[in-house]
Amino acid sequence: MRVLKFGGTSVANADNIKKVINILEQYSQDKTVVVISALGGVTDLLIKTGTLAANKDEAYKEVLSELEKRHLDTVKALLPVTQQSSCLSKVKQQFNELDEICEGVYRLNELSPRTRDRIISFGELLSSQIVADYYAATNQPCEWLDVRKLIRTNNNFGFAAVDFDVTNQLIADKVNASTTKLFAAPGFVAANADGHTTTLGRGGSDYTAAIFAGALQAEALEIWTDVNGMMTADPRWVPNAKNIAEISYQEAMELSHFGAKVIYPPTIQPVMARQIPVWVKNTFAPQEYGTLIRNTPSVEGEFIRGISSMNNIALLSLEGSGMIGIPGFSKRLFEALAKEEINVILITQSSSEHAICVAINLADVEKAVKAVDLAFEPEIKAGKVDALKVERNLSIIALVGDQMKSHPGISGKMFGVLGRNGINVRAIAQGSSERNISAVISFNDAKKAVTVLHEAFFEFEYKNLNVAITGVGNVGGKLLDQLAQQQAYLQQHLKLKVKVVALANSRKMLLKEEGIALDNWKQELDNSADMQLDEFVAGVVARNLPNTVFVDVTANADVAQIYGKLLSKSISVVACNKIACSSPYNYYQQLKSLAAAYNALFLFETNVGAGLPVIGTLNDLLRSGDRINRMQAVLSGTLNFVFNNYDGTRPFAEVVRQAQAEGYTEPDPRLDLGGTDVMRKIMILAREAGEQLEMDDISNTQFLPASCFDGSVEDFYQEMGKQEAHFQKLYKEAADKGCKLKFVATFENGKASVGLQHIPPASDFYHLYGKDNIVLFYTQRYPEQPLVVKGAGAGADVTASGVFADIIRTARV
Ligand SMILES: NC(=O)C1=CN([C@@H]2O[C@H](COP(=O)(O)OP(=O)(O)OC[C@H]3O[C@@H](n4cnc5c(N)ncnc54)[C@H](O)[C@@H]3O)[C@@H](O)[C@H]2O)C=CC1
Ligand SMILES: N[C@@H](CC=O)C(=O)O
């Protein structure tokens, strides 16, 4: 004996019903009960009909006639013409009855719960009758069961409670006495002891099937629906959600209670008591394995079975010093809520007993506030308890798994993941069964929370990294090339899927949650909206995507000002723009504090030495307890290139132009030539070494005549041309001494300076070619022979690869 239940989508139309009949054919040899839901959408329309009629709206007639037509059409599409008449007349008869009831409702201008149940019962009564007749016409006899005579309930219309003693007996007597193999029964519908129709709650067809399975001690219950079984998370939120092959009754109950809509929560009770296995199968893909719910699921090693969520939650907090150590407060709180029939979904109380928190449905808030404030009126007046605090628009997310209890670290991992993604937890509950860890969070974070938890507990293939890039010039363009080139590698070797979800330059901005195609970004960006920095940042924040990193590849001060906003939303920031770190010390420090406070990373390795590991090396030295005595460095790729290539045979301005053309200079080359870029870099190094240095504290001996800084960048080039003799003199003075010119930065004893120096052949700086940088760290552990970092210190490719490395670092936490 088996019991099968087919849901509304499985019987939504004639084609689907044919699929149901195909599935039933394989059960033709055994006694089988088939429980049928109303045709998809019909229950809602029946509710609408009743409500319209009760509101004296004649439109109810139209809805009814549409419903009648839909059922008649289904019969006509299924049954051969010669066999239609009996089924058609049954349908017409049911609609006549329904018409009369609705007319009564219309006349009385009233819809009682009892009449409402009567009206909505027609959906299942009709659909099951049609399936029974079609099966009988195409296969073998099928007996339609009038569940109103078999399932006995109390008078709680709309959500009636089953009297199992009577029901089990009635069902067993009826089915066992019959020689028919296949029975079709309407789901959802039952009757009270007086024979009045009742219903079992929305989703109650699953429950009907479980009641039959329990009463008949079936070998299995099969719930046929439109998905491949229960899933590890809601697939609308988590596209990588996986099917759960096996799951225990308790886990299934927890998951369905917390929002996994595949199975109606009360369904488990009658089958669990008799240990009847439950299959969840897909009517539209019957070959799929589905989910097996049973006592001891055989899948080993899975600590978490699924993640679920419940929205429209409110949190009520009753707080007050007057509650401490006084028994009876919680009893009174729950009594007040129970009196108003408010369901409590989650409870937490701090061990200090100073506060008790309960989560309820948002819809019950007003009732709850009134009831609780009234119940505690004397204490509130006496100032012992505060008026009830309410937080709205919350969700509950829950990790569910029987095996959690034998495995430490699950909650640590859960809250670590939430914290790293900036998701604030408002309340937590874990029962002693340790089967469910629930957290109350903002509704705005719910999708992100489920996504990151799923990633952490189920997705071992790869982690998604969502990247927002501002600036697609020289460096930004190369960065996008490198990301495109490395996508497959990252996925294969680092288990990272990097998605560029936002892109902007000074003119245009593009936000695309599903990811921007990296082979076509230029065109897409050109065709996108005009750039508004605030809107762009708001868009990145509002999408609230997990593992988001904002990358600043501009040289813009406004962009550098928005890092704080991002970090405080736990969005990591990677910058090659040096403006933030070389702004007044307070801002630099504030960004570091925000990053620490919100579990985000603020990385700017390319601020010094482009792709060279300069800041990383300095940090490693400091973290291991070393102390910096002195830093001496050539930090400008541009200036090193210029002085390596200038010997008076070509105009100085032309060599500078070449440095700009090759992508070594700042977007404004005067920052390089005037030494500002180097001042910024040595200041950033000093700050990283713990010094509170400002730009004004750094001495800079300029080698460029002041007149070069008047006017535009083009004026700057013109003026350098006019000052050629000055540059020739600089070169000659050094060359005459056998020296090279290098623009050197030094930090020692809390002081920093930058300036042009004559470098003799014996110096570490002498053999520094092309656009190379060099940094000498003299430390307590490297007192005489410094630790040296040397290599290309400018250029779009190397800088982009440094930015790339920082981006990947944000994903590895
Ligand atoms: N070139 C190099 O070797 C190195 C460069 N950097 C830094 O890289 C950054 C970028 O340099 P490049 O790519 O050479 O500059 P670029 O001038 O070629 O590109 C700058 C990009 O930023 C965009 N932009 C400017 N203002 C913007 C705003 N308000 N909103 C959105 N986008 C804006 C521009 O449209 C352009 O796409 C600079 O901060 C530079 O200091 C750092 C290390 C080495
Ligand atoms: N303009 C800079 C580029 C790197 O920061 C330089 O020349 O070093």
CATH architecture of the largest domain: 3-Layer(aba) Sandwich
The CATH homologous superfamily name of the largest domain equals Acetylglutamate kinase-like
The percentage of residues in β strands lies in 15-25%
> Which runs of at least 5 residues are low in confidence (pLDDT < 50)?
none
Count of separate structural domains: 4
Helix content: 40-55%
Give the CA-CA distance, first to last residue. 54 Å
- Average of pLDDT: 94
Question: Main attributes?
Answer:
8-stranded mixed β-sheet; binds 1,4-dihydronicotinamide adenine dinucleotide; 813 residues; alpha/beta; binds ligand LTNE7NMQ; 21% strand; Rossmann fold; 7-stranded mixed β-sheet; VC0802-like; single chain; elongated; Carbamate kinase
Structure description:
The chain is α/β, with parallel strands linked by helices and 813 residues long. The protein has 4 domains: 2-226, Carbamate kinase; 306-454, VC0802-like, CATH 3.30.2130.10; 463-610, Rossmann fold (3-Layer(aba) Sandwich), CATH 3.40.50; 614-793, Dihydrodipicolinate Reductase, domain 2. Helices cover 41% and strands 21% of the residues. An 8-stranded mixed sheet has the order 3-5-2-1-8-10-11-9, with helices on both faces. It has a 7-stranded mixed sheet with strand order 21-20-19-18-22-23-24, sandwiched between helices. It has a 6-stranded antiparallel sheet with strand order 13-14-12-15-17-16. Helix 2 packs antiparallel against helix 3 (59-78). The relative contact order is 0.06. The mean pLDDT is 94. The structure holds 1,4-dihydronicotinamide adenine dinucleotide and the ligand N[C@@H](CC=O)C(=O)O.
